[in-house]
Amino acid sequence: MSAPLLLHSLSELRTILLCLLAAADARSVVEIGSESGAFTRELVAFASNRGGGVTTVEPRPAPAILELARTEPTLRLVEGRSPEALARVTAADAWIVDGDHNFWTVVHELDAALDLGEAAERPPLLVLHDVAWPCGRRDFYYDPEGLPSDAVHAHTFAQGVVPGEPGVVATGGIRGEGRFAVALREGGEQNGVLTAIEAVLARRPGLELAVIPVVFGVGVIWPADAPWADAVRDLLAPYAGLDLLDRLEQNRLRLYAHVLELQDALRRVDGARNRALGALQDRVDALEADNGALRLELARLKATA
Ligand SMILES: C[S@@+](CC[C@H](N)C(=O)[O-])C[C@H]1O[C@@H](n2cnc3c(N)ncnc32)[C@H](O)[C@@H]1O
User: Fold this and answer.
1) Per-residue pLDDT tens digits for 206-264
2) Which residue's CA is minimally distant from atom 14 of ligand 1?
3) Which residue's CA is the nearest one to ligand 1's atom 26?
4) Domain interval for residue 39
5) Helix segments in the chain, DSSP class H
6) What's the pTM?
7) Nearest Cα to 12, choosing from 129, 148, 174, 161?
8) In a domain? residue 255
9) Does a structural domain hold residue 284?
10) Looking at the domain assignment, is residue 219 inside a domain?
C-alpha cells in the first residue's frame, strides 16, 4: 500500500497513545469513529492482551470493521451516531473520541463519557482527535441535518479551508468534496472541538488537559487525582511542551494546502487543454468532411468532362 500524502489517522500516534492507555491501566476502551479501522485494530490488540475489550461506535462501518467485529470477540461494534448511540455503551477506562468534529457533538460525548465514569466510580482517560487546526475552532459536520438546527453553524460542503484564513476559499483548501461540511467561519462561540473541550472543563473541575500538536492535534484529558495521573502527565510532558512539533504541524499543513492548490491548478489546465484539443479535433473532422465532399465533386466533374 502506498504511503498517504497526508498523515491523518490516530494510528500514526500509536506508540504514544498505547503507552498512555497502559499508564492509565486501561483495559476497556470506547472508540468513537473507526473509519477504516486502522487504529481500532491497534486498540483491539492492546485491550485483548490486557484481558479487556473495545467498543467502537460508527454510523458507517467500513467492511474491515464489520469483518473485525465478526472475527474478534473482544470488539463490539455499536452501529449508530454518537452521541445518541452512546446510550448503548457502558463505562470504559479510556475513550478515543474521533467521530463528528463539532462543538455540539463533542460536548455531549465528553459529558456522556464522564457521567458514565462517575457512575461507575472509574473516571476515564479521554483522548480526542482534531483539537488543533482545522477543527479546533471550526465545526466540521458529517451530517448537519442530523444535528439540532441551533447546534449547526452556516456551512458548506463544497468550499475548503486554508491555514490563516478564518473564512473559506473558493478553490483549493482542505474540503470534504461532499463527504463532510465545514463551518463558513472559524472562531467565535460554540465552534470547534477545542472550544467544546474548554466548555466542558470550565464546568467540570478537577480535569487536566494536554495537547500533542501533531496530525491535527490530539487532546488528552484526565482526572487530576487519578492514581495514574502522574504517569500520564509525565508521559505527555515532552510532547505537549515541544514547540517544534507545533511548527512542524503548521509547516506540513501549509505544504499540503499548497499541494491542493497545485492539484486544482493542474486540473484546470488539463480541463482547458482537453477543451482546446476537442475544438481542434472538431475542426479537423469538419475539414475532412469538406475535403471528402470536394473529392466527390471533382470525381463527378471528371466523369462528365
Ligand atoms: C476521522 S474518521 C476516524 C479516524 C479513525 N479514528 C482513525 O484515527 O483512524 C471519523 C469517523 O467518524 C465517523 N463518524 C461521523 N459521525 C459520527 C458520529 N456522530 N458518531 C460516531 N462516528 C461518527 C465517520 O464515519 C468516520 O468513520
Assistant:
1) 999 999 999 999 999 999 999 999 999 999 999 998 999 999 999 999 999 999 989 88
2) 99
3) 35
4) 10-241
5) 14-23, 38-49, 63-71, 103-119, 193-203, 229-240, 243-304
6) 0.90
7) 129
8) no
9) no
10) yes
